[in-house]
Amino acid sequence: MKTLSAFTAPGRFWRGNIHTHSTRSDGVLDPAEVCRRYWAEGYDFLALTDHFIGDYGYPIVDTVPYRGDGFTTILGAELHSGAQENGEMWHILAVGLPPDFAPSHTPAWRPVPGQETGPALAARAVAAGAFVAVAHPQWSGLTVADAASITAAHAVEIYNHGCFAGCDRADGTAIADQLLQAGRKLTLIATDDAHFSEPDHFGGWVMVKAMENTPEALLAALKAGDFYASQGPELRDVRVFADRVEVECSAVVSVIVQGHGMAAKAVHGHAMTTGAVPIKGRFEGSPYLRVTVIDAAGKRAWSNPVYPDWGA
Question: Would you state the pLDDT for residue 223?
Answer without folding.
Answer: 98
